[in-house]
Amino acid sequence: MIDGIKHADFKVSHIKGRYVTHNHIRDYLFQLKPSFRLETLGSSVQGNPIYGVTIGSGTNRILMWSQMHGNESTTTKAVLDLINYLKLELGESKNWLKNFTIMIIPILNPDGAKAYTRVNADQVDLNRDAQELSQPESRVLMSAYDNFKPDYCFNLHDQRTIFNVGETDKPATVSFLAPAFDEKRNLSESRTLSMQLIAAMNKKLQEHIPGQVGRYDDSFNPNCVGDAFQMLRTPTMLFEAGHYPGDYDREVTREYICMALMEALVTIKKGSLNLFTVEDYLAIPENRKMYCDVLIYNAHLLDKNLAYGTKVAILFDERLTGDHIVFVPKIESIELQGKAVFGHETKDAANLRDRLWLENRGVLTLF
What domains are defined for the chain? Predict the structure, then answer.
């Protein structure tokens, strides 16, 4: 529920799952009314168009981009839901369009999206190309930044299922970062605003997914786009869409990302950033990598070479098969009993029902 309106009322429901490309979103973008100003901002390495949608006429200017990494599609679904909310003129959307001018790049890396890879067609991570600008997609984003002159930047990503929140067994369903602008990770006006806005979004999300919001490590890297824009004194926030229990298609997480985006707009519109502090941001626990997809206890019953009491961590590889993603299990590590690690699924090899589950998921073939 977002301001009394159900997410299902504006969710672009035919665009779903983990595999999202221009083929999936093009028809939706092209049927938008003229007030949603759709333009081709440039082309990818392979000559595919990179689209931008500009909405509204207000003085608060926000630039959002998604699928900089082609296999990170949850936030693309979320920005399409936000566009649809504005298109349907629900809730406060008319007021938002008077207060904001929003530019959204739904898929910055269309070649990577099609191939379902993190990198672009030149095998370059676009989020490590902020200084050289060696790739056409990087230059498209920088040109959009220079021409649009945003007051805020939203850098939208997905994160792996391995992340938990702090020392807890809560999965990091959403994570944020206010990127650093120097090696010492000092505060500036723009970074402080980033932290305050993240704190506002966190407060909202805690009402719905308590304990499931994490904070990314803020090590400085000027080649990362968020750090580079922060160096240019533009408040920039990294969004990471993570795992919600059982939600490998990330249809639940897309709702929480959309909720966070909308809460950010509400906070900016109300001018209520001063209600939140740097300390509120720093109170968000940092992410840790303590999760696996399946944690198997008594794994010595599956492999006689394993010591008694051994547990085995399984991760899923995401593989593009046809037009969808298949989750293929692999052994990530063999851990001694007692090591702190959590499983999104926990199975006991001594339990017949659990062994059948492992067999059905193809896990037993790994032993």
Answer: 7-289 (3.40.630.10), 291-366 (no CATH)
Per DSSP, helices labelled H in 133-181 are 136-148
Total Cβ atoms within 10 A of residue 25: 24
**Which position has the higher pLDDT, 339 or 112?**
112
Residue 338 has pLDDT above 70, yes or no: no
Is residue 193 helix, strand or coil?
Answer: helix
Cα–Cα dist 53/30, whole Å: 10
What pairs with residue 343 in β-bridges? 292
Whole-angstrom distance, CA of residue 343 vs CA of residue 25: 34
Stated length of the chain: 367
Rounded CA-CA distance 266/272 in Å is: 9
Cα Rg for the chain, rounded, in angstroms?
Answer: 21
Check residue 352 and give its pLDDT.
95
- Strand 60-65 relative to strand 152-158: parallel, antiparallel, unpaired? parallel
The Cα–Cα gap between 115 and 325 comes to: 11
pLDDT exceeds cutoff 70 at 332: yes
Q: What is the pLDDT of residues 53-95, one digit of tens each?
A: 999 999 999 999 999 999 999 999 999 999 999 999 998 888 8
Q: Is the dihedral of CA 104, 107, 109, 110 positive or negative?
A: negative
| CB distance 144 to 61 below 8 Å | no
pLDDT score of 335: 60
CA 327 to chain centre: 19
Range 123-127 contact pairs with CB under 8 angstroms and sequence separation of 24 or more? 125/69, 126/68, 126/69, 126/225, 127/68, 127/69, 127/157, 127/224, 127/225
Q: What is the DSSP string of 79-122?
A: HHHHHHHHHTT-TTHHHHHHHEEEEEES-S-HHHHHHT-SS-TT
Using CA atoms, how far apart are residues 180 and 226, in angstroms rounded to an integer? 8
Q: What are phi and psi of 119, to 5 degrees?
A: -90, 170
The identity of residue 328, as a single letter, is V
> Is it the case that residue 340 has pLDDT exceeding 70?
no
**2-6, 151-155, 352-356: least confident range:** 2-6
